[in-house]
């Protein structure tokens, strides 16, 4: 699911929840939409975690509905903890790549600096630079 379709669906569900809580209130419909919203947010978090190479178990315990095959976080507090773990996992992946690429980048820069110094010396020796 793309980010825009996720945002659209989330906005639609929030509107449905608000509509269900207005007069006359329909708590069953509101609860159903709140569950759908929690599943939608959990799916989005899970997709982002998979993209960064994290597994579902890395983010914490999930609840599963065998009839629909849907997974979600049991409570908002757990969801916030999972978002924090996701951020830490994303930071670890980025840090790994930075640690991997920084020596290579410094080597490339030093080779370019050496080549530029060698070119300046050559041009000075043949008389093009005074």
Percent of residues in beta strands? under 5%
Largest sheet: 2 strands, antiparallel
Q: What is the helix tally?
A: 3
Distance between the termini: 63 Å
Task: Give the low-pLDDT segments.
Answer: none
Gyration radius (Cα, Å) is 27 Å
What is the averaged pLDDT score? Answer: 84
Structural class: mainly alpha
Q: Name the helix and strand elements from N-terminus to C-terminus, one letter apiece.
A: HHEEH
Assembly type of the chains comes to single chain
In short:
With 130 residues, the protein is mainly alpha-helical. Helices cover 72% and strands 5% of the residues.
Structure, described:
Helices cover 72% and strands 5% of the residues. By secondary structure, the chain is mainly alpha-helical. It has a two-stranded antiparallel ribbon. Strand 1 and strand 2 form a beta hairpin. Helix 1 (3-21) runs antiparallel to helix 2 and helix 2 runs parallel beside helix 3. The longest helix has 50 residues, at 76-125. The protein starts with a helix and ends in a 5-residue tail after the last helix.
């Amino acid at each position: 699911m793309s980010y825009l379709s996720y945002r659209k669906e989330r906005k639609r569900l929030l509107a449905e929840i608000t509509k269900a809580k207005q007069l006359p209130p329909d708590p069953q419909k509101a609860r159903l939409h709140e569950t759908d919203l929690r599943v939608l947010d959990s799916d989005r978090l899970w997709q982002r975690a998979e993209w960064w190479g994290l597994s579902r178990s890395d983010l914490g315990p999930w609840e599963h509905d065998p009839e629909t095959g849907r997974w979600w976080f049991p409570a908002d507090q757990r969801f916030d903890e999972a978002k924090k773990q996701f951020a830490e996992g994303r930071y670890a992946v980025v840090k790994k790549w930075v640690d991997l690429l920084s020596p290579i980048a410094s080597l490339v820069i030093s080779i370019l600096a050496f080549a530029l110094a060698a070119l300046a010396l050559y041009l000075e020796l043949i008389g093009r630079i005074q």
